[in-house]
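Issue: ligand-bound run for NAP - logging full I/O for the record.

Environment: standard queue, default settings, no custom constraints.

Inputs:
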Amino acid sequence: MRAIRWGILGAGVISDDFVTGLKSAPGSEVVACWSRTQARAGELAARHGLRATATLDELLRADVEVVYVATPPQSHKEHALACLAAGKAVLLEKPFAMNAAEAREIASAARSAKRFCMEAMWSRFVPAVRELYLQLKSGRHGEVQSIEASLGFAQSRARDGALLDLGVYPLSFVHGVLGAPRDVSAVGSHDEVSAVLGYASGAQAAVRCSARALLRNDAIVWASGARLEVEQPLFRPESFSTHALAPPAAEAAPAPRGGLRAITQRPELRRWVQRAKGLTAPRVTLPAIGNGYAHEALEVNDCLRGGALESGVLPLDESIAVLETVDRIRGALKS
Ligand SMILES: NC(=O)c1ccc[n+]([C@@H]2O[C@H](COP(=O)([O-])OP(=O)(O)OC[C@H]3O[C@@H](n4cnc5c(N)ncnc54)[C@H](OP(=O)(O)O)[C@@H]3O)[C@@H](O)[C@H]2O)c1
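Outputs:
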């Protein structure tokens, strides 16, 4: 297996976590890092045995195939464009950009340069979420009717606002299931936003994010055949449980007048009867590898080895669509 050589742009908290995560992604080699403050890049380099370059140009001239960009969102466009112009593939931290216009610019640069580019929305790559999406796409739970998803922490350092720092996680989760909404409404502020998304199919999604309150940080998907509960934390879930709903015919059937069947049809007992019949699936647990960042890195490695210019799991148009929804939420907050 050809090793994929990585460069790291930015030397903050998350770069450190990502480089640690890469150690659990076989076939990855981290070569060099750069950050605005050289001392910080030096510390990251020393901790992980990398080379800290003196300039961004030096990083971009280094023998690396892909650059992980983890600078603040205001710099994502500038740094992604610089990497692409230097012929490097890019894994760009969430939020992909400040708004949809910037996201489109980055995607268009990647497509013109014929270089791979992907948003580092790590929650989309962990095994539990991929399994949940597969199950929903297979149709075995019926049609998705509504979703609730949230991410929020008390006294979070949401420098760029709760919507950009935290809201993109539940929004990306919802987009992965239902796609782009037809209607968007929202209330909120810099620190807390509640948005309701409406779909042409009649489906709805309620998304909450907060930098001042510890929310449930999970997601619930109601499909016509089941309620699926994704356990917190939504940025890296490892389990979900499936609660099968009673088949409509059984619901509609009048309860027999006597005997055991009459007892088992009583609403308060039906859940236990369904469980006994195997209608309520057990909890699915699929642990993430290491600290969880390896999964997105493995996707990048696979794409680069296979010559793909975008990820099939999280294509660029989906990252753009999430930011279009962010823009519409911002618009709804102003009105
Ligand atoms: N996936 C996740 O779990 C996760 C979690 C948290 C954050 N994030 C995302 O990761 C990104 C970075 O977040 P963070 O918490 O790691 O931030 P951070 O700790 O503030 O680190 C940012 C790094 O970027 C450098 N930097 C800032 N502006 C720069 C510029 N103009 N040119 C070059 N380097 C610059 C900083 O250097 P200085 O020391 O000079 O400022 C620092 O090394 C953000 O997009 C954030 O949303 C992702």
